[in-house]
Specification:
Blueprint: H1 8-17, H2 24-46, E1 74-81, E2 92-96, H3 123-130, E3 134-139, E4 159-160, E5 163-167, H4 173-180, E6 186-191, H5 197-203, E7 206-209, E8 229-234, H6 237-247, E9 277-281, H7 292-307, E10 311-315, H8 323-340, H9 355-368, H10 374-390, H11 393-413, E11 418-422, H12 438-446, H13 454-458, E12 462-470, E13 473-480, H14 486-499
Parallel strand pairs: 2-3, 2-6, 9-10, 9-11
Antiparallel strand pairs: 1-3, 4-5, 6-8, 7-8, 7-12, 11-13, 12-13
Helix pairs in contact: 1-2, 4-5, 6-14, 8-10, 8-11
Length: 505
Amino acid sequence: MLPKPPTVERVAQIARGFGLDLTDDDARSFQGLIAGIMPLYERLESLPEETLPVSYPRTPGWRPEAADNPLNAWYWRCDIRGASEGILAGKTVAVKDNICVAGVPMMNGSALLEGYVPDHDATVVSRILDAGGVIAGKAACEDLCFSGASHTAATGPIRNPHNPDHSAGGSSGGSAALVASGAVDMALGGDQGGSIRTPSSWCGAYGLKPTWGLVPVSGSMPIAYSIDHCGPIADSVENVARLLTAIAGHDGWDTRTISARAGDYMGALEGDIDGLRIGVLKEGFGHPESGPEVDARVRAALKSFGALGAEIVDVSVPQHYDAPAVWTGVIVEGAAEMMLKGHGVGTNIPGFYPVTMQEAFARGFSTHLGDASETVKLVLLAGEYMNQAYANRYHSKAQNQRGLIRRAYDAVLESVDVLVMPTIPFTATRIPAADVEREVYVDLALNMQANTCPFDVTGHPAFTVPCSRIDGLPVGMMLVGRAFDEATLIRAAAAFERSTDWKSN
C-alpha cells in the first residue's frame, strides 16, 4: 500500500486539533509541502523488511473446548516442537498471549486485537524452541495486561487452581494457573507492576521477574518501554533456572539488553546458603491492606533460612513507600502513549516493530474501543488527561525519581545479599461478579502491588517462592537481589525449596 498525501481539509483539521489557526492559503501550502515528501515514503514502502525469524514448522493449533480448559487459562493450544535436545528438551511451555508465536492467533486478552495472527516468533519463543522446549499454547492474560487480578480478559475470568472462585492473579494469570495445575512445566510471563509475581504468588508457582534488560522482549506487545520485563514461571526452582538460562542474554533487536549479564543459573541450584545475609525489609510488612497472617507466615518461613546457616537481619528502605507513586507516574502516561495511542508499539525506540500487530491494534482501537476493559479505559483517560493538563510533567518527575529509589535499595543490598518480604500482602481475592460496580472492578484489579511495583521501577530482580497456605490459598515470599544477580536468588530459593514443604505449612 502506497501512502497518499492528505487533503487540504485534513491538514486544516489536524491543525485545529493542535490549536493552530491556518488560513485556507496556509492549509494549501502545507498540503503541498507534505505531498512533496511522499516520494520518500513511497521509497520506504518498497524496501525489503527484516523481521524476526521463524525456524520450526507448526500448524495454527486450536481453541480448546471448555471441558479441556476448566480454569479458562488457555487462550489457544498448539504443539510446536523445536530442537531435539537442549536445556529445555521435553519441557512443555505456555507462552503468555502478549508474546508473538508465528501462525498462532494472539489477542493479548483484548477484543481490540482479536483476529490477529503474528507472522514472526518473539526472540524468547525462538530461544525456547532452540533449547528443545515444546510450545504447548498461548496462556490467557488480562486485557492488554493491565490488571493484577484475573477478571478483565475478554475471554472471561481465569480461575485459581486452588479455588476456582478466586482470582489467579494477573496479568500473567493463565501462565501461573497452567503451571500450578500441572498442565505445563513452565511458562513465560510479563511483568510491569507485578504481573509475573502476583499470579505466581496467588497460584503457588515459582515466578521470577528478571533484572530489567536481562531477557529481551522483541516481538512482544509492550506496555511501557522502561518497565517492561519478561521472565519465567515454573513448577520448581530448577525449571525456573532452566527457562531463564534459555531466554536470558543480549538480543540485537532489543536495546534494553545491551548491558545484560547472564549468570550460571543451573550451577546456583546446588549452592548452600551458609553465611548468606538476608535482609527482612521493614516496609514490606504491615501495609494498611496487609493480612496479618500473611505477614506472619512469611516471617515464619524465614526460620528455614536461619536453620540453613543464613544470617537474618532487619533492614529498612523508607523509599519503598514512595515507589508506588513513582510507578504510577511512569506507567499511566507511558502506557497511554506507547500501548494505546502508540497502537501497541509506540515510536522512537530502536528495536523490532511488529507492523502487522500495530495495524491490527489500530483497527480495533478505532472501531471498538468501548469493548476494552475498565482498566484499559482508565489508563487511556488518565494518561491523556495528565498529558494534556500537565504536559507529561509527572511522568518526567517519576522517571527522574527512579535513580534515587534504585540507589536506596542498592545501598541496603551492599550489606545484605537478599531482601525478603511478602510478595502480595494478602491471598487471592474472589473473582467479582460480571456486573460489579466499576470502582470495585478497578480496585480489585490494582490493589495488590505495594511490594511488587517498586522493583519494576528500580529494575532489580525479584523472585516469588511459595512458602505457605492460608485456607487452602498459597502465600508467596519474595526474594529481591542485586542487578543481574539472579543466581543468588535461585540459590536461596532452591535451598528453601529443598528444606520446606510449603503446602503443609
